[in-house]
Amino acid sequence: MSDIAYKLVDRAEWEASGDPYAGSAVDRADGYIHLSTSGQLAETAARHYRDRGDLLLVAVDLSVLGETLKLEPSRGGDLFPHIHGVLPHAAVPGLRSLSVDGEGVMRFDDGAVGWP
User: Fold this and answer.
1) How far apart are CA 44 and CA 63, in angstroms?
2) Fewest CB within 10 A of the end CB: N or C in the chain?
3) Model pLDDT, residue 90
4) Per-residue model confidence as pLDDT tens digits over 17-49
């Protein structure tokens, strides 16, 4: 697995959260912050963010998270990275603005489509 995983977040939620980010309402209800690997990201976007705009794709440096990072089975036994704690902004090397269209395709504000 790469040292980078991703979190799709509503821009307003991210901006209002401060540092550290404690997760979305769904994350807090589940007890951990959901992340996706690059190979899981397109399906996550299509399943959970279809027809949503004003999102951020938050890159997360997994090497910074220590013991709060757990790889746990989800869809079909695939292992997903989860943060059992908070996401410090120091673990975020970058953000990208995007929307997810009605077909579940990520459309980045810089014109890129899908996942590069």
Assistant:
1) 22
2) C
3) 96
4) 999 999 999 999 999 999 999 999 999 999 999
Query: CA 80: distance to chain centroid?
Result: 11
Q: In whole angstroms, what separates CA 12 from the centre of its chain?
A: 15
- Calculate the CA 28 to chain-centre distance: 14
Q: How many structural domains is the chain composed of?
A: 1
* CB-CB neighbours of 108 under 10 Å: 16
Q: Token pair of 17, please? A: 């959260």
* Most distant CA atoms of the chain, gap in Å: 37
Q: DSSP letters along 16-75, please?
A: HH-SSB---HHHHHHTSEE-B-HHHHHHHHHHH-TTEEEEEEEEEEGGGSGGGEEEEE-G
Domain that holds residue 29: 4-102
Tell whether 44 is covered by a domain. Answer: yes
pTM of model > 0.85 = yes
